[in-house]
Specification:
Shape: elongated
Helix content: over 70%
Structural class: mainly alpha
Distance between the termini: 31 Å
Number of helices: 9
Largest sheet: none
Number of strands: 0
């Protein structure tokens, strides 16, 4: 089953859950938010989904997800750095988001929307850093609007303007995934400590499977 079929199966509620989880739950960092938004927009161009309903749902999910991540970071605070690493959680993700936040300030909440993994942890780091909520929600709404609406509309207009674009949808989605994860792959490739850490996690995971 491809992503197009999955979206048609889960519908707007499923899309909401995926976007919400990837935006603010640290276990959702692996979800394909960019490709889901783009593909959903394409399906809207084919009349399978309602574009206005899709944009509203995705925008609400993105903003609500980030707000949940912020609240989690605010309440849990620095305790999260004492959590043991696992397949679904790694402190390096938090540290990476923290560095990104320090470098870019509040606007990191907007920029992070377009960077997988970082967009999941940026609101948590904002909460840990006790960013003023008024500032956070302003950038959260702006980022959610640009990300959710932008990718939905990109898929919609591509579907409307290019004849038989459905034949090329899969390679287009693959290209979006490659472009979106490229910064993280490059970062890992340059970070020796992170490569060793990932190798340790894979070794632990495989040893559990083989037991």
């Amino acid at each position: 089953m491809n992503i197009e079929s999955i979206i048609q199966t889960v519908g707007l509620l499923g899309i909401f859950i995926i976007i919400f989880a990837e935006s603010g739950l640290f276990v959702g960092f692996f979800l394909p938010g960019d490709s889901v938004l783009f593909t959903a927009g394409f399906l809207a161009s084919q009349g399978i989904l309602s574009l206005p309903a899709l944009i509203i749902i995705c925008f609400i999910a993105a903003v609500a997800g980030d707000s949940t991540g912020y609240t989690f970071g605010r309440k849990v605070g620095k305790k999260i750095f004492n959590k043991e690493d696992s397949i679904l959680f790694h402190k390096d993700h938090i540290r990476k988001a923290q560095e990104f936040y320090k470098k870019n300030g509040p606007k990191a909440i907007v920029i992070a929307r377009f960077i997988p993994v970082v967009r999941t942890f940026a609101p948590i780091v904002a909460g840990v850093g006790e960013m003023e909520y008024r500032t956070f929600i302003t950038y959260n709404i702006l980022g959610g609007l640009l990300w959710a609406t932008g990718l939905n509309l990109a898929g919609f207009f591509l579907g409307k303007t290019i004849p038989n674009v459905d034949k090329y949808l899969f390679p287009i989605i693959i290209l979006i995934i490659i472009i979106s994860i490229a910064p993280n792959v490059i970062h890992v490739a340059k970070d020796e400590e992170m490569k060793k850490s990932i190798a340790r996690e894979i070794k632990k995971f495989t040893s559990k499977i083989n037991k």
